[in-house]
Design a protein that fits this description.
By secondary structure, the protein is an alpha+beta fold. Helices cover 39% and strands 23% of the residues. The protein has 2 domains: 105 residues, Disulphide bond isomerase, DsbC/G, N-terminal (Nuclear Transport Factor 2, Chain: A); 156 residues, Glutaredoxin, CATH 3.40.30.10. A hairpin with a 2-residue loop joins strand 1 and strand 2.
Length: 279
């Protein structure tokens, strides 16, 4: 065993051992294997979701797929369940035997679970409600890269093929929280958001990425007195952002052609078609 980058990594001397374990992991009996107590305790303490013993592992061990937030996790337990190691299984040829199996095991559950959380968040829609493609964006009212992204995706939005659901947070500057509250509490949030973003976008329309001006004093006025319902919505959005491990805006979430969740932190300016589809 080698300790690297804070994760225990298992090295298997013979690939044949892994092939045998893979067959076992794919059998019906493996699916009924009791979850080791250590994994159960970790799940209770961290909120980690355990998918099952679906990963290839050598004889005498079982490979468990799990995830927390949007982070896939791999665990390997001894057959008696007394010991559990977190890490990556590598064979004698230095092949990573964990990555693809883990992605396959948790992909659909990970995508479905996070997508439902995004759907339940407090967002302001931009675009056709009947659009086939939905994209979620965590956005701060004072984020210049968020406003740049808003402007860049308008050609897609205007085709009616895409709806962008803007999950409003207030984290960047002293006026961010009040502005975010003002957008969520507006009589017409969609119009308020459009007007705000149009103003913010215009501030930096002619500025390059390294020369974007602060937006703290422009756009919608911060809400001085925030009612309890609006505060709850805003706090829940920020809690969701934190639970997904997102620390900056914009953070973009969409589904690929296979229905699996994809994400990008920052403006995906060089990859807009992959996110928003053809114009």
């Amino acid at each position: 065993m080698v300790y690297a980058s804070g994760v225990l990594t298992l090295t298997v001397a013979a690939a044949a051992l892994v092939a045998t374990a893979a067959e076992s992991a794919n059998s019906g009996a493996a699916d009924r294997t009791p979850i080791p107590p250590a994994l159960q305790a970790l799940s209770r303490e961290t909120g980690m979701q355990i998918v099952g013993p679906t990963l290839p592992a050598p004889p005498g061990m079982k490979g468990w797929a799990a995830f927390k937030g949007q982070q896939p996790l791999a665990f390997y337990s001894t057959d008696d369940g007394k010991y559990v190691i977190v890490g990556t299984m590598i064979d004698a040829r230095a092949n990573d035997l964990t990555k693809s199996a883990l992605e396959k095991a948790v992909g659909s559950q990970l995508s479905g679970g996070i997508w439902k959380q995004l759907e339940r968040s407090h967002w302001i829609a931009d675009g056709n409600p009947a659009a086939r493609r939905i994209v979620y964006v965590f956005t701060d009212p004072n984020c210049p890269y968020c406003s740049r992204l808003w402007g860049d995706v308008q050609p897609w939005v205007k085709t009616g093929k895409v709806q962008v659901r803007n999950i409003i947070v207030g984290i960047l500057t002293p006026t961010s929280y009040g502005k975010a509250a003002a957008l969520l509490a507006a009589p017409d949030p969609q119009k308020a958001f459009q007007d705000h973003e149009a103003t913010q976008y215009s501030v930096n329309a002619n500025n390059g990425p390294g020369h974007l001006k602060s937006l703290d004093s422009t756009g919608i006025a911060p809400l001085a007195a925030i009612d309890a319902a609006t505060k709850r919505k805003l706090d829940e959005n920020m809690q969701l952002m934190s639970s997904l491990g997102v620390e900056a805006t914009p953070a973009v979430y969409w589904k690929d052609p296979n229905g699996l969740l994809q994400s990008s932190l920052g403006e995906p300016s060089s990859n807009l078609s992959a996110v928003f589809g053809p114009r």
